[in-house]
Design a protein that fits this description.
Oligomer: single chain
Largest sheet: none
Distance between the termini: 42 Å
Number of helices: 15
Mean pLDDT: 87
CATH architecture: Up-down Bundle
Helix content: over 70%
Order of helices and strands: HHHHHHHHHHHHHHH
CATH superfamily: MFS general substrate transporter like domains
Radius of gyration: 21 Å
């Protein structure tokens, strides 16, 4: 007779899903209100680029430190600290108006936001066997899409009814509600009394990995896999940042879509992209079940997603907003499918106690790419007023990302850090 495994581990994914959702709502508020705030406070494209750079610089600093911190203190306490900071910094936006003050608030938000994915990926590595990790990561990563969907649905209503300040305050308050559920619910699998023995055995079915007390940076960065993953994130994270922070401005400047009407195009884009997160996780899991090597399956899925991004180059040539929305939706769908695999590939090849550190390091590389790209986008738009160059860069970024993985991340090499 078969033993019922149980599904408690998926409750943990639900918590991670809502954490990611809230994280992205807090990030999205500024992007949605950017056309209004830029007009109200007289921000130039370069000013707005500087504000976004402040968030990404803080995000980079947070990732380089949070990953290591999470490996030391664990995900329970790490989430408590980071979500508290995220919520407080988000609310503080309501008190500011100048470029420097907004940049300061964004800096605090960036540090708080930086722990989400290192903590979530580490939690998945602790709670799921390898064959389910991509799917679990894809599910939690849909939270970024749900957040991006809810934000344009709710933020304009709040801002138009009560003022833009309450949009920031309301978004920040969500984090404190989530913390209550996290503190009441979360424990590691070995310590959780609600978890059945059958499910615990299922979670721990993979080969036991040797533990190391210390994770020297020189050992981690000595592997070409680390450089391949970091380069991949450096190339693609900035494109996702661009989608989050410049799409409202792009739709406003090219198609005259204001705050009252911004919701529908953004909701369509992120509803479609949400499917990419689940599909990307399913596709690699399907390839693994068909006999593909785990890392090879991730890379094949990433290549497929990279091809879907290429047509975004045509966006700037379209005079029809819905053609543009379709092309952007294909790219965001592909990004989320790619993300489910680039996050999971870390836990495929590194030991569990290095996952947070490596994910943080890769996120740092992505955030640095975001800092450079945001400043570049601001200057490009300031001097040309055109998105042609920006979409051209986006169209090839994911192919270059796949190439870096193809060249630097072998399929059959598990890393043991000693």
């Amino acid at each position: 007779m078969s033993v019922k495994i149980g599904n408690y581990r998926w409750r943990i994914v639900v918590l991670l899903f809502f954490a990611t959702t809230i994280n992205y709502i807090d990030r999205q508020v500024l992007g949605i209100l950017a056309p209004q705030l830029s007009t109200q406070f007289g921000w130039s494209e370069a000013d707005y680029g500087f504000i976004i750079m402040a968030f990404q610089a803080a995000y980079a600093i947070g990732l380089i430190s949070m990953g290591t911190l999470l490996d030391k203190i664990g995900t329970r306490l790490g989430f408590i600290v980071s979500v508290t900071l995220l919520s407080v910094a988000g609310m503080f936006h309501a008190a500011f108006s100048s470029v420097a003050a907004f940049a300061t608030a964004r800096f605090g938000l960036g540090v708080g936001a930086s722990a989400n994915f290192p903590a979530a990926i580490k939690t998945v590595a602790e709670w799921f066997p390898k064959k389910e990790r991509a799917l679990a990561t894809g599910v939690l990563n849909t939270g970024s899409n749900i957040g991006a969907i809810l934000a344009p649905l709710l933020i304009p209503i709040i801002a138009l009814k009560w003022g833009w300040q309450w949009a920031f305050i309301s978004a920040g308050a969500l984090g404190f509600i989530w913390l209550i559920f996290w503190m009441l619910t979360y424990k590691k699998p070995e310590e959780n009394k609600k978890l059945s023995k059958a499910e615990l055995d299922y979670i721990l079915q993979d080969e036991i990995e040797p533990e190391t007390k210390k994770l020297p940076w020189k050992s981690i960065i000595s592997y070409k896999q680390t450089w391949g993953i970091c380069l991949a994130r450096f190339l693609t994270d900035p494109i996702w940042w661009f989608f989050l922070y410049w799409l409202p401005k792009f739709l406003h400047s090219n198609y005259n879509i204001d705050l009252t009407h911004i919701g529908l195009p953004l909701i369509i884009i992120y509803v479609i992209s949400m499917g990419g997160s689940v599909f990307g996780g399913w596709m690699s899991s399907f390839l693994i079940n068909r006999g593909n090597n785990t890392v090879a399956a991730r890379k094949k899925t990433i290549f497929f997603m990279a091809l879907l991004v290429v047509p975004i180059f045509l966006t700037s040539f379209s005079s029809n907003v819905w053609v543009a929305v379709t092309l952007i939706s294909m790219a965001t769908f592909a990004h989320q499918g790619y993300a489910a695999n680039i996050f999971t590939i870390v836990s495929d090849i590194y030991p569990k106690n290095a996952v947070g550190t490596v994910t943080g390091l890769a996120g740092f590389a992505g955030a640095i790419g975001g800092v450079l790209f945001s400043g570049t986008v601001g200057l490009i738009l300031q001097f040309t007023g055109s998105y042609y160059i920006v979409f051209g860069i986006a169209s090839v970024a994911y192919l270059l990302c796949w190439l870096s993985l193809y060249l630097l991340v072998p399929n059959n090499k598990k890393i043991v850090i000693v």
